[in-house]
Structure formats: C-alpha cells, structure tokens
Amino acid sequence: MRSLFHDVSKTSPRRLRKLLTFQVNSKPRDESGGYGEDWSTAFTVRGSLEPFSGEEVMPVDWTVSLNQFRAVIYRRPDVTTQMRILMFGVPDELLDQKTADITRAGYRAFLVIVAPQISAEDRFMEVYCEEVKS
C-alpha cells in the first residue's frame, strides 16, 4: 500500500486529463438541524482521480462499500472538506441537484474528506475523497 502523502511534485501535468467540478454545499444544515444539500459550482479544473483504498463495512443487516479516491490538481487554496467533486460529463441541469439524484442518474460524485494544507511553493495538491453511492 502506498503512503498517504506521496511526492506530488513529481506529478506530470499530462496525467491531469479528467475534468473535475468542485462544488460547495452552501446549506450544510436545514431548518430542523439535519443536513441539507444546496450545491453550487465553485470551480472546474483538470486533474487526475484514481482509486486509493476500499473496504467493506458490515453493520447489522447490510454491507456498505467505502471506496476512497485521490484527486491530484494544480494547487488551489480554496479546497475544503465542505465540497464534493463531480466527474466530467454531468449535464448542467443536474449540477445543483442532490448527490443522490446525480448518482441515480448514472454519474459519479465524491465527497472531499481530506483537503491538506499546502504551501505557496507547491505546484500540485492531493485531495482525498470518498465515492458517494445512492
């Protein structure tokens, strides 16, 4: 297994081929105190997205598959854990929909779980995320 933080300074820009849309949840809580979804596009960049790890968790009556991915993009200081990443190809009319609606339509969505702090000298950054399944 690879270490969590490998040397991204050796990343080739040619590997950054996928179009990734980062969206921010502007309404993380609803009126009743639960979690709400109101997504708006923050930015779209080219990057790479590759599987990092996977596991199956078996609660009482079902099995849950957790798939984690590593996204490598050019350095951006505005990436937070309140974001999701959409793979290229999601139609504009679905961009502001709930994550479950996007995954049901056959597109892939990822919730950012680690957005590491980066320095001004870094050219690339790694963002760790988890795939959302409906």
Task: Provide tags for this entry.
single chain; 134 residues; mainly beta; 6-stranded antiparallel barrel; 6 strands; 4% helix; 43% strand
Describe, in plain words, how this protein is organized in 3D.
The protein has 134 residues and is mainly beta. It has a single domain (16-132), classed as Beta Barrel (Thrombin, subunit H), CATH 2.40.10. It has one helix at residues 99-104; strands at 18-25, 39-57, 64-74, 83-87, 109-114, 124-132. A six-stranded antiparallel beta barrel has the order 1-2-3-6-5-4. The chain is globular. 19% of the residues are buried.
List the helices and strands and how they pair.
Blueprint lengths: L17 E8 L13 E19 L6 E11 L8 E5 L11 H6 L4 E6 L9 E9 L2
Antiparallel strand pairs: 1-2, 1-4, 2-3, 3-6, 4-5, 5-6
Number of strands: 6
Secondary structure: helix percent: under 10%
Mean pLDDT: 78
CATH fold type: Thrombin, subunit H
The CATH superfamily title? Bacteriophage SPP1 head-tail adaptor protein
What's this model, at a glance?
The chain is mainly β and 134 residues long. The chain has one helix at residues 99-104; strands spanning 18-25, 39-57, 64-74, 83-87, 109-114, 124-132.
